[in-house]
Amino acid sequence: MRKALKALACCLFLGTGAYADDSLLISNAVVIDGTGAATFSADLLVEDGVIKSIHAPGEGPKTASRSIDAKGRVVAPGFIDLHTHGDPVAQSFENFLAMGVTTVTLGMDGSSDSLTGGEGGLAGWKKRAGAKGLQLNVIPLSGHGTVRHLAGIPDGTRALSPAQTEALQRTLRQDLAAGSFGLSLGLEYVPGVYAETAELRALGDVITNTDAIIMSHMRSEDDADVEDAIGELVAMAPRGRVHVSHLKVVYGKGEARADGLLAFMAGKRETGTRLTADVYPYAASYTGIGILFPEWALPPTDYTALRQQRDDELLDYLGKRITRRGGPAALLFGTQPYAGQTLAEAAKAAGKPPAGFIADLGPRGGSAAHFVMDRTVVDKLLADANVALSTDGSPTMRHPRAFGTYARLIEYYVMQQNQLSLEAAIHKATGLPAQIMQLADRGVIKPGMAADLVIFTPANVRENTSYIAPHEKATGFDIVLVGGYIAYQDNKATPARAGQVLRLQ
Ligand SMILES: [Zn+2]
Question: How many angstroms is it from 226 CA to the middle of ligand 1?
């Protein structure tokens, strides 16, 4: 029975050419085409997973084998998330479909272990994805840390030998040839934290020569360091494509701070770097508590020995860092056994000072939401013309961004705050990320583009999720189509598996 179902799913939903006469008419659509242009009314004809033609309302062909009456609802391109975690071969990405996402970018923050680091590398993962079928499209990246491991470089290594550099470049080139869009960095994490300028330049050369993209996680996102950290990325590929993931200014406050950062980035573009960024629309970050620790306490350091030898120094460092980041009430644990508790609460219940509590957990002791950003800065960055939207979420992450980002874009930024027009907001989620990733056939509604579409009434979109109940799905995105097939409807994912692993064009 299971086999039969799988075969059915395969033939109905996989091969776009399975039925030569497969066609879909979406009538009475209010089209927002993803370019930022003004809304218009139309009927859309989809054939074999591709937008075939666009007609005046009521003038679309009546011969389509399937039809959807949009009933005056918005029809926009499916949203393209520029920074995503998780593995769609092993997990359901229903929470992404629920907020209109039809393409995710994976292998971020320096780690692509499940994507390029597993059996058979990226080609092996693609084979497994093809066999299982994908709910949505995937843009694969190569994680710097994963490339480093595959090249046999031990974590703590700083200056690479010529042979190690050669192995690193060779591994990255292989990934790019297998379809990776570029290199993701995790310069605040192990092993990226050990990478020096020469290593980054060597990798940047490979990226520039293949017109691939570099996507950060930067060396630091702190107020005092963020411009230097962007400068380090730009220096990797001064004539190339450089993208700052989850752009933010930790501790930075006010409009002038955001303006200063945006002006700095505009200056880099003037010198020839194709520099872009994405933002998730929340004032808390979410990451491992390792972010609180000094580099000298991170792996491969023997943490047990370190605590015996330098405990006072460590506790002093942690105490200052916790204070600098807003105090123990500004950290909300997302992982068990403390999920839903602030550091202040958890430490108090344990009868320990916050620094001692964190030291006992250790740098790998869990993940948390960190309330370290100013809403004014977030909103100003998001409004910039070169800044797109991302979730930095996963199917399981305990941060509202993973379930709410695109609903928040519509509900909060467009409908409640009037900070963005609907057309501009949709552009940040579709046409702009497609441009950044050089996707020639997605992100815009016009003939010849893939039929990744989302149908919704803006006033009905709800974010639902919160820091306390982060796994509530968004509502209001009525129908989500991936490759011309309905992937999400009636508040649940369908069995459709029309997602594709995209290739750099
Ligand atoms: Zn990151």
Answer: 14
